[in-house]
Design brief:
531 residues; alpha+beta; 17 strands
Length: 531
Protein backbone atom coordinates (compact mmCIF):
# COMPACT_ATOMS: atom_id res chain seq x y z
CA UNK A 1 0.00 0.00 0.00
CA UNK A 2 2.83 2.37 0.94
CA UNK A 3 4.69 1.67 -2.33
CA UNK A 4 1.52 2.26 -4.32
CA UNK A 5 0.99 5.60 -2.58
CA UNK A 6 4.57 6.61 -3.35
CA UNK A 7 4.09 5.73 -7.02
CA UNK A 8 0.90 7.79 -7.15
CA UNK A 9 2.63 10.79 -5.57
CA UNK A 10 5.55 10.41 -7.97
CA UNK A 11 3.18 10.27 -10.96
CA UNK A 12 1.38 13.42 -9.80
CA UNK A 13 4.74 15.13 -9.37
CA UNK A 14 5.74 14.19 -12.91
CA UNK A 15 2.40 15.39 -14.21
CA UNK A 16 2.93 18.81 -12.70
CA UNK A 17 6.56 18.82 -13.82
CA UNK A 18 5.44 18.09 -17.38
CA UNK A 19 2.92 20.92 -17.20
CA UNK A 20 5.66 23.25 -16.03
CA UNK A 21 7.94 22.22 -18.87
CA UNK A 22 5.15 22.65 -21.41
CA UNK A 23 4.39 26.10 -20.06
CA UNK A 24 8.00 27.14 -20.52
CA UNK A 25 8.27 25.86 -24.07
CA UNK A 26 8.88 28.45 -26.81
CA UNK A 27 5.72 29.74 -28.41
CA UNK A 28 3.44 28.84 -25.51
CA UNK A 29 0.59 31.33 -25.24
CA UNK A 30 0.69 33.76 -22.34
CA UNK A 31 -2.09 35.75 -20.70
CA UNK A 32 -0.35 38.98 -21.67
CA UNK A 33 1.26 40.24 -24.86
CA UNK A 34 3.89 42.72 -23.68
CA UNK A 35 4.29 44.16 -27.16
CA UNK A 36 0.85 45.76 -26.70
CA UNK A 37 1.73 47.58 -23.48
CA UNK A 38 2.06 51.31 -24.08
CA UNK A 39 4.47 51.56 -21.14
CA UNK A 40 6.96 49.40 -23.05
CA UNK A 41 6.75 51.26 -26.36
CA UNK A 42 9.93 53.18 -25.58
CA UNK A 43 12.28 54.49 -26.62
CA UNK A 44 14.39 53.81 -23.50
CA UNK A 45 17.69 55.54 -22.90
CA UNK A 46 18.70 53.38 -19.91
CA UNK A 47 17.98 50.15 -18.10
CA UNK A 48 16.44 52.07 -15.21
CA UNK A 49 13.83 53.50 -17.58
CA UNK A 50 12.75 49.97 -18.52
CA UNK A 51 12.53 48.94 -14.86
CA UNK A 52 10.34 51.93 -14.02
CA UNK A 53 7.94 50.77 -16.73
CA UNK A 54 7.97 47.17 -15.43
CA UNK A 55 7.24 48.28 -11.88
CA UNK A 56 4.00 49.99 -12.92
CA UNK A 57 2.46 46.53 -13.13
CA UNK A 58 4.87 44.33 -11.17
CA UNK A 59 4.69 46.60 -8.15
CA UNK A 60 6.41 44.32 -5.62
CA UNK A 61 9.09 42.76 -7.83
CA UNK A 62 11.94 45.11 -6.96
CA UNK A 63 11.24 44.83 -3.20
CA UNK A 64 11.38 41.05 -3.46
CA UNK A 65 14.56 41.08 -5.53
CA UNK A 66 16.37 43.40 -3.14
CA UNK A 67 15.98 40.86 -0.31
CA UNK A 68 17.82 38.12 -2.20
CA UNK A 69 21.49 37.15 -2.49
CA UNK A 70 21.18 37.64 -6.23
CA UNK A 71 20.89 41.34 -5.43
CA UNK A 72 23.01 41.86 -2.33
CA UNK A 73 25.86 39.48 -3.20
CA UNK A 74 26.19 39.30 0.57
CA UNK A 75 25.47 36.43 2.95
CA UNK A 76 25.97 35.39 6.56
CA UNK A 77 26.48 31.64 6.42
CA UNK A 78 24.36 30.15 9.24
CA UNK A 79 26.51 27.01 9.30
CA UNK A 80 29.82 28.80 9.93
CA UNK A 81 28.95 32.39 10.87
CA UNK A 82 31.25 33.67 8.14
CA UNK A 83 30.35 36.91 6.39
CA UNK A 84 30.52 35.96 2.72
CA UNK A 85 30.28 38.74 0.19
CA UNK A 86 32.11 40.57 -2.55
CA UNK A 87 33.84 42.74 0.06
CA UNK A 88 35.30 39.77 1.92
CA UNK A 89 35.67 36.84 -0.46
CA UNK A 90 38.44 35.92 -2.85
CA UNK A 91 38.65 33.12 -5.38
CA UNK A 92 41.33 31.46 -7.47
CA UNK A 93 39.92 32.67 -10.80
CA UNK A 94 39.45 36.44 -11.26
CA UNK A 95 40.49 36.69 -7.59
CA UNK A 96 38.14 39.39 -6.29
CA UNK A 97 35.26 41.69 -7.08
CA UNK A 98 36.27 44.87 -5.28
CA UNK A 99 38.11 47.34 -7.53
CA UNK A 100 36.88 45.31 -10.53
CA UNK A 101 33.17 46.19 -10.29
CA UNK A 102 32.81 47.60 -13.82
CA UNK A 103 33.71 44.14 -15.14
CA UNK A 104 32.34 41.68 -12.59
CA UNK A 105 29.03 43.53 -12.22
CA UNK A 106 28.02 42.83 -15.79
CA UNK A 107 26.56 39.72 -14.11
CA UNK A 108 24.75 41.60 -11.36
CA UNK A 109 20.95 41.88 -11.68
CA UNK A 110 21.25 45.63 -11.33
CA UNK A 111 22.44 48.73 -13.17
CA UNK A 112 25.45 50.93 -12.46
CA UNK A 113 27.36 49.09 -9.70
CA UNK A 114 30.77 50.59 -10.52
CA UNK A 115 32.19 51.09 -7.02
CA UNK A 116 31.39 50.92 -3.29
CA UNK A 117 28.84 53.74 -3.59
CA UNK A 118 26.19 51.67 -5.37
CA UNK A 119 22.72 52.30 -3.91
CA UNK A 120 21.23 48.90 -3.03
CA UNK A 121 17.97 50.54 -1.88
CA UNK A 122 17.09 52.00 -5.29
CA UNK A 123 14.46 49.70 -6.82
CA UNK A 124 14.83 51.35 -10.21
CA UNK A 125 18.30 49.83 -10.47
CA UNK A 126 16.92 46.27 -10.45
CA UNK A 127 17.52 44.70 -13.87
CA UNK A 128 14.35 42.85 -14.88
CA UNK A 129 15.68 42.11 -18.37
CA UNK A 130 18.72 40.19 -17.14
CA UNK A 131 16.54 37.21 -16.22
CA UNK A 132 13.42 37.74 -18.33
CA UNK A 133 14.71 38.68 -21.78
CA UNK A 134 14.06 36.17 -24.55
CA UNK A 135 17.07 37.12 -26.66
CA UNK A 136 19.23 39.99 -27.84
CA UNK A 137 20.02 41.38 -24.39
CA UNK A 138 23.61 41.89 -23.28
CA UNK A 139 25.55 43.76 -20.59
CA UNK A 140 29.15 43.87 -21.84
CA UNK A 141 32.05 43.63 -19.40
CA UNK A 142 33.33 47.02 -18.31
CA UNK A 143 30.00 48.89 -18.24
CA UNK A 144 29.14 48.25 -14.56
CA UNK A 145 26.05 46.20 -15.38
CA UNK A 146 24.56 48.75 -17.76
CA UNK A 147 23.32 47.79 -21.22
CA UNK A 148 24.85 49.88 -24.01
CA UNK A 149 22.33 52.38 -25.40
CA UNK A 150 24.71 54.53 -27.49
CA UNK A 151 27.64 53.45 -29.67
CA UNK A 152 30.65 53.33 -27.35
CA UNK A 153 34.39 52.91 -27.87
CA UNK A 154 35.66 50.14 -25.63
CA UNK A 155 38.28 49.63 -24.33
CA UNK A 156 39.05 53.37 -24.29
CA UNK A 157 41.42 54.33 -27.06
CA UNK A 158 41.22 50.91 -28.70
CA UNK A 159 39.34 51.92 -31.82
CA UNK A 160 36.83 49.14 -31.07
CA UNK A 161 33.15 49.95 -30.61
CA UNK A 162 30.21 48.33 -28.83
CA UNK A 163 26.91 48.80 -30.63
CA UNK A 164 23.72 49.78 -28.76
CA UNK A 165 20.76 47.44 -28.26
CA UNK A 166 17.04 48.19 -28.64
CA UNK A 167 15.71 48.10 -25.09
CA UNK A 168 12.09 48.66 -26.15
CA UNK A 169 12.14 45.65 -28.46
CA UNK A 170 13.66 43.49 -25.74
CA UNK A 171 11.20 44.73 -23.09
CA UNK A 172 8.23 43.92 -25.35
CA UNK A 173 9.32 40.29 -25.70
CA UNK A 174 10.05 39.37 -22.08
CA UNK A 175 9.20 35.88 -20.82
CA UNK A 176 10.00 33.19 -18.29
CA UNK A 177 13.56 32.53 -17.25
CA UNK A 178 15.36 29.94 -19.36
CA UNK A 179 18.64 28.08 -19.31
CA UNK A 180 20.34 30.68 -21.46
CA UNK A 181 19.19 33.63 -19.34
CA UNK A 182 20.44 31.99 -16.13
CA UNK A 183 23.50 30.79 -17.99
CA UNK A 184 24.39 34.26 -19.25
CA UNK A 185 25.91 34.74 -15.81
CA UNK A 186 26.26 31.29 -14.29
CA UNK A 187 27.99 29.76 -17.31
CA UNK A 188 30.44 32.65 -17.54
CA UNK A 189 31.68 33.08 -13.98
CA UNK A 190 35.44 33.48 -13.82
CA UNK A 191 35.68 35.34 -17.09
CA UNK A 192 34.39 32.93 -19.71
CA UNK A 193 32.16 30.06 -20.76
CA UNK A 194 32.55 27.04 -18.47
CA UNK A 195 35.53 28.51 -16.62
CA UNK A 196 34.47 28.02 -12.99
CA UNK A 197 31.99 25.25 -12.39
CA UNK A 198 32.85 22.61 -14.94
CA UNK A 199 29.27 21.32 -14.94
CA UNK A 200 27.71 24.57 -16.17
CA UNK A 201 28.44 25.90 -19.66
CA UNK A 202 26.65 26.94 -22.85
CA UNK A 203 26.44 23.36 -24.16
CA UNK A 204 23.48 22.95 -21.78
CA UNK A 205 21.45 25.44 -23.84
CA UNK A 206 21.06 22.72 -26.47
CA UNK A 207 21.69 19.74 -24.23
CA UNK A 208 21.33 16.24 -25.62
CA UNK A 209 20.06 13.28 -23.61
CA UNK A 210 23.64 12.04 -23.30
CA UNK A 211 24.78 15.35 -21.79
CA UNK A 212 21.95 15.88 -19.29
CA UNK A 213 18.81 13.79 -18.95
CA UNK A 214 16.85 16.63 -17.36
CA UNK A 215 17.84 19.43 -19.76
CA UNK A 216 17.65 17.28 -22.90
CA UNK A 217 16.21 19.67 -25.50
CA UNK A 218 14.29 16.84 -27.16
CA UNK A 219 13.19 15.29 -23.88
CA UNK A 220 12.26 16.79 -20.52
CA UNK A 221 13.82 20.13 -21.54
CA UNK A 222 13.96 21.44 -17.97
CA UNK A 223 14.77 25.06 -17.33
CA UNK A 224 16.88 25.94 -14.30
CA UNK A 225 13.79 27.02 -12.38
CA UNK A 226 12.22 23.56 -12.63
CA UNK A 227 14.66 22.46 -9.93
CA UNK A 228 15.83 25.79 -8.52
CA UNK A 229 12.31 26.80 -7.57
CA UNK A 230 11.83 30.45 -6.60
CA UNK A 231 9.56 31.99 -4.00
CA UNK A 232 9.16 35.76 -4.26
CA UNK A 233 12.31 35.80 -6.43
CA UNK A 234 14.40 33.93 -3.83
CA UNK A 235 15.93 30.99 -5.70
CA UNK A 236 16.52 27.62 -4.00
CA UNK A 237 19.92 25.97 -4.06
CA UNK A 238 23.38 27.39 -3.39
CA UNK A 239 26.98 26.20 -3.64
CA UNK A 240 27.78 28.31 -0.56
CA UNK A 241 25.45 26.32 1.68
CA UNK A 242 24.77 22.94 0.12
CA UNK A 243 22.20 20.31 1.08
CA UNK A 244 24.67 17.44 0.92
CA UNK A 245 22.39 14.76 2.39
CA UNK A 246 18.60 14.63 2.01
CA UNK A 247 17.37 11.22 3.24
CA UNK A 248 13.67 11.85 2.67
CA UNK A 249 10.81 10.95 0.38
CA UNK A 250 10.09 12.83 -2.82
CA UNK A 251 8.20 16.11 -2.57
CA UNK A 252 4.94 16.84 -4.31
CA UNK A 253 5.14 19.61 -6.86
CA UNK A 254 4.41 22.90 -5.07
CA UNK A 255 4.50 21.32 -1.61
CA UNK A 256 5.27 23.83 1.15
CA UNK A 257 8.31 22.60 2.98
CA UNK A 258 11.51 23.75 4.64
CA UNK A 259 13.46 21.24 2.53
CA UNK A 260 15.58 22.33 -0.41
CA UNK A 261 13.54 21.62 -3.59
CA UNK A 262 16.71 21.60 -5.70
CA UNK A 263 18.09 18.29 -4.36
CA UNK A 264 17.89 15.04 -6.33
CA UNK A 265 15.81 13.50 -3.53
CA UNK A 266 13.22 16.28 -3.76
CA UNK A 267 11.99 14.62 -6.96
CA UNK A 268 13.33 11.08 -6.79
CA UNK A 269 13.28 10.30 -3.07
CA UNK A 270 16.16 8.73 -1.19
CA UNK A 271 15.44 5.19 -2.48
CA UNK A 272 14.96 5.89 -6.17
CA UNK A 273 16.02 2.62 -7.81
CA UNK A 274 13.13 0.50 -9.09
CA UNK A 275 14.91 -2.41 -10.81
CA UNK A 276 14.44 -6.02 -9.77
CA UNK A 277 14.30 -6.43 -6.01
CA UNK A 278 17.89 -7.52 -5.41
CA UNK A 279 19.43 -4.88 -7.70
CA UNK A 280 17.23 -2.12 -6.32
CA UNK A 281 18.03 -2.98 -2.71
CA UNK A 282 21.75 -3.07 -3.48
CA UNK A 283 21.73 0.26 -5.31
CA UNK A 284 19.44 1.99 -2.82
CA UNK A 285 21.79 0.96 -0.01
CA UNK A 286 24.44 3.12 -1.69
CA UNK A 287 22.37 6.28 -1.05
CA UNK A 288 23.30 6.09 2.63
CA UNK A 289 26.91 6.72 1.64
CA UNK A 290 27.04 8.29 -1.82
CA UNK A 291 25.54 11.46 -3.23
CA UNK A 292 23.39 10.69 -6.28
CA UNK A 293 25.81 12.79 -8.32
CA UNK A 294 28.74 10.48 -7.52
CA UNK A 295 27.27 7.72 -9.68
CA UNK A 296 25.18 9.67 -12.14
CA UNK A 297 27.74 12.30 -13.21
CA UNK A 298 30.69 10.20 -14.41
CA UNK A 299 32.55 13.25 -15.77
CA UNK A 300 32.10 17.02 -16.09
CA UNK A 301 32.79 19.43 -18.97
CA UNK A 302 31.25 16.79 -21.25
CA UNK A 303 29.53 19.13 -23.71
CA UNK A 304 32.58 20.19 -25.69
CA UNK A 305 33.29 23.37 -23.70
CA UNK A 306 36.53 23.05 -21.69
CA UNK A 307 36.73 24.18 -18.07
CA UNK A 308 39.73 25.76 -16.38
CA UNK A 309 41.51 23.34 -14.07
CA UNK A 310 44.44 25.63 -13.20
CA UNK A 311 45.27 29.34 -13.50
CA UNK A 312 48.75 30.77 -12.92
CA UNK A 313 48.49 34.55 -12.44
CA UNK A 314 52.24 34.87 -11.87
CA UNK A 315 52.78 34.44 -15.64
CA UNK A 316 50.72 37.54 -16.50
CA UNK A 317 52.52 40.52 -17.99
CA UNK A 318 54.62 38.78 -20.64
CA UNK A 319 54.96 40.73 -23.92
CA UNK A 320 56.15 40.02 -27.43
CA UNK A 321 59.56 41.17 -28.69
CA UNK A 322 57.74 44.28 -29.92
CA UNK A 323 56.42 44.97 -26.42
CA UNK A 324 52.85 43.94 -27.23
CA UNK A 325 50.53 41.71 -25.20
CA UNK A 326 49.57 38.41 -26.77
CA UNK A 327 47.49 35.27 -26.43
CA UNK A 328 48.46 31.66 -27.03
CA UNK A 329 45.91 29.04 -28.04
CA UNK A 330 45.90 25.25 -28.02
CA UNK A 331 45.22 23.05 -31.05
CA UNK A 332 41.47 23.51 -30.56
CA UNK A 333 41.59 27.30 -30.51
CA UNK A 334 41.18 27.68 -26.76
CA UNK A 335 43.25 30.35 -25.00
CA UNK A 336 45.89 28.87 -22.70
CA UNK A 337 47.91 32.06 -22.16
CA UNK A 338 46.90 35.72 -21.98
CA UNK A 339 49.28 38.56 -21.16
CA UNK A 340 46.62 40.12 -18.91
CA UNK A 341 45.63 36.95 -17.10
CA UNK A 342 48.48 34.45 -17.11
CA UNK A 343 48.60 30.75 -18.03
CA UNK A 344 45.75 28.23 -17.92
CA UNK A 345 45.27 24.47 -17.88
CA UNK A 346 42.00 23.37 -19.50
CA UNK A 347 40.09 20.11 -19.19
CA UNK A 348 37.25 18.31 -20.97
CA UNK A 349 35.50 15.09 -19.95
CA UNK A 350 37.13 15.39 -16.55
CA UNK A 351 36.70 12.63 -13.96
CA UNK A 352 35.77 14.30 -10.65
CA UNK A 353 37.65 13.96 -7.41
CA UNK A 354 35.62 12.62 -4.47
CA UNK A 355 35.37 13.48 -0.80
CA UNK A 356 33.06 13.34 2.20
CA UNK A 357 30.84 16.44 2.33
CA UNK A 358 28.12 17.51 4.75
CA UNK A 359 27.25 20.79 3.02
CA UNK A 360 29.30 23.04 5.30
CA UNK A 361 31.90 25.19 3.57
CA UNK A 362 34.41 27.60 5.09
CA UNK A 363 36.36 30.17 3.08
CA UNK A 364 39.70 31.92 3.33
CA UNK A 365 38.71 35.60 3.33
CA UNK A 366 40.70 38.68 2.37
CA UNK A 367 41.86 39.49 5.90
CA UNK A 368 42.62 35.89 6.94
CA UNK A 369 46.24 34.94 7.57
CA UNK A 370 47.61 32.26 5.26
CA UNK A 371 50.57 29.89 5.31
CA UNK A 372 52.44 30.52 2.04
CA UNK A 373 54.66 27.47 2.57
CA UNK A 374 51.79 25.19 1.57
CA UNK A 375 48.92 25.25 -0.92
CA UNK A 376 46.30 27.63 0.47
CA UNK A 377 42.70 26.33 0.51
CA UNK A 378 40.38 29.05 -0.77
CA UNK A 379 37.53 26.94 0.56
CA UNK A 380 37.21 23.78 2.62
CA UNK A 381 34.39 21.22 2.28
CA UNK A 382 33.62 19.65 5.65
CA UNK A 383 32.25 16.21 6.47
CA UNK A 384 33.30 13.39 8.76
CA UNK A 385 33.83 10.03 7.03
CA UNK A 386 30.79 7.84 7.62
CA UNK A 387 28.77 10.55 9.38
CA UNK A 388 24.99 10.43 8.97
CA UNK A 389 24.87 14.00 7.63
CA UNK A 390 27.64 13.48 5.05
CA UNK A 391 27.86 11.77 1.66
CA UNK A 392 30.71 11.10 -0.75
CA UNK A 393 30.46 13.87 -3.34
CA UNK A 394 32.09 14.50 -6.72
CA UNK A 395 34.06 17.76 -6.82
CA UNK A 396 36.14 19.80 -9.23
CA UNK A 397 39.55 20.57 -7.73
CA UNK A 398 40.92 23.82 -9.16
CA UNK A 399 44.53 24.92 -8.66
CA UNK A 400 45.58 28.55 -8.74
CA UNK A 401 48.66 30.67 -8.26
CA UNK A 402 47.80 34.18 -7.16
CA UNK A 403 49.28 37.23 -5.42
CA UNK A 404 49.65 37.66 -1.67
CA UNK A 405 51.19 40.19 0.69
CA UNK A 406 54.57 38.73 1.69
CA UNK A 407 54.71 40.74 4.93
CA UNK A 408 51.11 40.45 6.09
CA UNK A 409 50.52 36.93 4.69
CA UNK A 410 47.11 37.80 3.29
CA UNK A 411 45.71 37.25 -0.18
CA UNK A 412 45.61 40.32 -2.43
CA UNK A 413 42.96 41.49 -4.87
CA UNK A 414 44.39 43.21 -7.96
CA UNK A 415 42.55 45.70 -10.11
CA UNK A 416 42.69 43.97 -13.48
CA UNK A 417 41.64 46.97 -15.56
CA UNK A 418 41.32 50.70 -15.02
CA UNK A 419 38.56 51.90 -17.40
CA UNK A 420 39.96 55.40 -17.92
CA UNK A 421 43.60 54.34 -18.28
CA UNK A 422 43.98 52.99 -21.81
CA UNK A 423 47.67 52.15 -21.33
CA UNK A 424 46.80 49.82 -18.48
CA UNK A 425 44.79 47.64 -20.85
CA UNK A 426 47.84 46.77 -22.89
CA UNK A 427 50.73 46.74 -20.42
CA UNK A 428 49.69 44.78 -17.36
CA UNK A 429 51.76 45.81 -14.35
CA UNK A 430 51.48 43.87 -11.10
CA UNK A 431 52.70 46.66 -8.82
CA UNK A 432 50.16 49.06 -10.30
CA UNK A 433 47.34 46.48 -10.30
CA UNK A 434 47.85 45.56 -6.64
CA UNK A 435 48.22 49.16 -5.50
CA UNK A 436 45.00 50.08 -7.31
CA UNK A 437 43.23 47.08 -5.80
CA UNK A 438 44.36 47.97 -2.27
CA UNK A 439 43.26 51.58 -2.71
CA UNK A 440 39.83 50.54 -3.96
CA UNK A 441 39.22 47.91 -1.29
CA UNK A 442 40.78 49.82 1.59
CA UNK A 443 42.61 46.63 2.56
CA UNK A 444 46.01 46.99 4.27
CA UNK A 445 48.91 46.36 1.86
CA UNK A 446 52.62 46.43 2.66
CA UNK A 447 53.58 47.09 -0.94
CA UNK A 448 55.46 43.80 -1.13
CA UNK A 449 53.97 40.87 -2.96
CA UNK A 450 54.69 37.33 -4.13
CA UNK A 451 52.65 34.44 -5.48
CA UNK A 452 51.23 31.49 -3.59
CA UNK A 453 49.66 28.21 -4.73
CA UNK A 454 45.95 27.89 -3.95
CA UNK A 455 43.15 25.37 -4.30
CA UNK A 456 39.40 25.79 -4.69
CA UNK A 457 36.65 23.15 -4.68
CA UNK A 458 33.41 23.18 -6.67
CA UNK A 459 30.55 20.68 -6.14
CA UNK A 460 29.53 18.81 -9.28
CA UNK A 461 25.76 18.48 -9.63
CA UNK A 462 24.79 19.17 -13.28
CA UNK A 463 25.34 17.19 -16.51
CA UNK A 464 23.47 14.13 -15.24
CA UNK A 465 24.15 11.21 -17.59
CA UNK A 466 21.61 8.56 -18.66
CA UNK A 467 21.46 5.63 -16.26
CA UNK A 468 23.22 3.28 -18.68
CA UNK A 469 26.19 5.70 -18.61
CA UNK A 470 26.35 5.92 -14.82
CA UNK A 471 29.58 5.00 -13.06
CA UNK A 472 30.06 1.24 -13.28
CA UNK A 473 30.51 -0.92 -10.18
CA UNK A 474 34.04 -1.90 -11.24
CA UNK A 475 35.14 1.75 -11.31
CA UNK A 476 34.93 1.97 -7.52
CA UNK A 477 35.14 -1.66 -6.43
CA UNK A 478 38.77 -2.10 -7.43
CA UNK A 479 42.23 -1.13 -6.31
CA UNK A 480 43.08 2.38 -7.47
CA UNK A 481 39.47 3.10 -8.47
CA UNK A 482 37.51 6.32 -8.24
CA UNK A 483 37.18 6.12 -4.47
CA UNK A 484 40.79 5.29 -3.72
CA UNK A 485 41.77 7.09 -0.53
CA UNK A 486 38.20 7.68 0.67
CA UNK A 487 38.05 6.69 4.35
CA UNK A 488 35.08 5.72 6.49
CA UNK A 489 33.59 3.10 4.19
CA UNK A 490 34.43 -0.52 3.38
CA UNK A 491 34.45 -1.08 -0.38
CA UNK A 492 34.61 -4.73 -1.50
CA UNK A 493 37.18 -5.10 -4.23
CA UNK A 494 39.15 -2.13 -2.95
CA UNK A 495 39.47 -3.07 0.70
CA UNK A 496 40.61 -6.37 2.16
CA UNK A 497 40.21 -7.85 5.62
CA UNK A 498 41.62 -11.36 6.17
CA UNK A 499 38.70 -12.53 8.28
CA UNK A 500 36.10 -11.02 5.98
CA UNK A 501 37.88 -12.55 3.00
CA UNK A 502 37.85 -15.96 4.70
CA UNK A 503 34.18 -15.62 5.59
CA UNK A 504 33.44 -14.56 2.04
CA UNK A 505 35.24 -17.57 0.58
CA UNK A 506 33.52 -19.86 3.08
CA UNK A 507 30.15 -18.42 2.11
CA UNK A 508 30.97 -18.89 -1.58
CA UNK A 509 32.11 -22.46 -1.00
CA UNK A 510 29.02 -23.17 1.10
CA UNK A 511 26.84 -21.81 -1.69
CA UNK A 512 28.70 -23.89 -4.28
CA UNK A 513 28.41 -26.99 -2.09
CA UNK A 514 24.72 -26.37 -1.56
CA UNK A 515 24.11 -25.98 -5.32
CA UNK A 516 26.13 -29.16 -6.01
CA UNK A 517 24.28 -31.20 -3.41
CA UNK A 518 20.96 -29.88 -4.73
CA UNK A 519 21.92 -30.90 -8.27
CA UNK A 520 22.99 -34.37 -7.15
CA UNK A 521 19.76 -34.79 -5.22
CA UNK A 522 17.72 -33.84 -8.29
CA UNK A 523 19.62 -36.27 -10.46
CA UNK A 524 19.09 -39.09 -7.95
CA UNK A 525 15.40 -38.24 -7.65
CA UNK A 526 15.05 -38.21 -11.43
CA UNK A 527 16.73 -41.59 -11.76
CA UNK A 528 14.48 -43.09 -9.08
CA UNK A 529 11.39 -41.82 -10.88
CA UNK A 530 12.58 -43.48 -14.08
CA UNK A 531 13.15 -46.76 -12.25
Amino acid sequence: MRNRAIHVLFAVSLLFAGASVAASAPGTASTADHSKFEELAGPFDSGEAVTRACLKCHTEASHQIMKTRHWTWDYINPDTGQHLGKKTMVNAFCIGDQSNEPFCQSCHIGYGWKDQHFDFSDGNKVDCLACHNTGGYAKPSGFAGNPVTVRSEYPPGSGKFVEPIDLAKIAQTVGRTRRDTCGACHYNGGGGDGVKHGDLDSSLNTATHALDVHMDKDGLNFSCSDCHVSDQHAVAGSRISVTAADPHRALLRGEKTARNPATCQACHGDKPHKENLLAAERLNAHTDTLACQSCHIPAFARGGVPTKMAWDWSQAGQLTAEGKPFQKKDDHGHVIYDSKKGAFVLGKDVTPAYQWFNGKVTYTLQDDKIDPSTRVPINVFHGEPGAADARIWPVKVFHGRQPYDTERNTLLVPSVGVPNDSAFWYNFDWAKALAAGAEATGAPYSGKYGFVDTQMLWPITHMVAPKDKAVGCHECHTNGGRLAGIDGVYIPGRDHNPWLDRLGWLAALAALLGVTLHAIARVITHLRKED
